[in-house]
Amino acid sequence: MTEMLETLLQACIAFLKIGAFSFGGGYAVVAFIQREVVEGHGWITPENFVNVVAIAEMTPGPIAVNSSTFVGYNLAGILGGIVCSASTLAIPFALALIVAIYFSKFKDNIYLKNALSGIRPAVIGLIAASCLSVGKISFSGWESVIFFLVALVMVWKAKINPILALITCGVLGAVLYGWVFPMLGI
């Protein structure tokens, strides 16, 4: 019991950090979450992390919160899911509340504008780092490149909803890995 509470406290601190420093949200935070839960603490494997990101993307809500709920639940059941989710949300909630109260007073402040001008491109770098980090795990063979290209073309060029791209690749994966490849002996 004590070991579980210690792990839950570590998870709480980890997700407080993730929530506090996940500027840009979404994919910008994926590399940070991976560093904490996979590399830092070993709570989940790299392969499971990719699955967590995929599930977090498909479910409603922010990726960071969905990921923290999954990791927390795996560590300590329902209580772990609730604690990790709340930890992820605590600092951003407080910051958003403060910004909502004071932003109108400082929206024309040159220092704030300059800071935001520096943060925006950094968020693109964080997203790129997340893509590379997840890509190293996800690209396991030529077939994974095909799934990547199918999703890329569907979302970027054909402007199809990302959820439809995920469903399409999921169905293709089930057919290829579950039926075609075994039939061909691959």
Automatic annotation (TrEMBL):
<feature type="transmembrane region" description="Helical">
    <location>
        <begin position="75"/>
        <end position="103"/>
    </location>
</feature>
<dbReference type="Pfam" id="PF02417">
    <property type="entry name" value="Chromate_transp"/>
</dbReference>
<dbReference type="GO" id="GO:0015109">
    <property type="term" value="F:chromate transmembrane transporter activity"/>
</dbReference>
<dbReference type="InterPro" id="IPR003370">
    <property type="entry name" value="Chromate_transpt"/>
</dbReference>
<dbReference type="InterPro" id="IPR052518">
    <property type="entry name" value="CHR_Transporter"/>
</dbReference>
<keyword id="KW-0472">Membrane</keyword>
<keyword id="KW-1003">Cell membrane</keyword>
<feature type="transmembrane region" description="Helical">
    <location>
        <begin position="163"/>
        <end position="181"/>
    </location>
</feature>
<feature type="transmembrane region" description="Helical">
    <location>
        <begin position="115"/>
        <end position="135"/>
    </location>
</feature>
<protein>
    <submittedName>
        <fullName>Chromate transporter</fullName>
    </submittedName>
</protein>
<dbReference type="GO" id="GO:0005886">
    <property type="term" value="C:plasma membrane"/>
</dbReference>
<comment type="similarity">
    <text>Belongs to the chromate ion transporter (CHR) (TC 2.A.51) family.</text>
</comment>
<feature type="transmembrane region" description="Helical">
    <location>
        <begin position="141"/>
        <end position="156"/>
    </location>
</feature>
<feature type="transmembrane region" description="Helical">
    <location>
        <begin position="12"/>
        <end position="33"/>
    </location>
</feature>
<keyword id="KW-1133">Transmembrane helix</keyword>
<keyword id="KW-0812">Transmembrane</keyword>
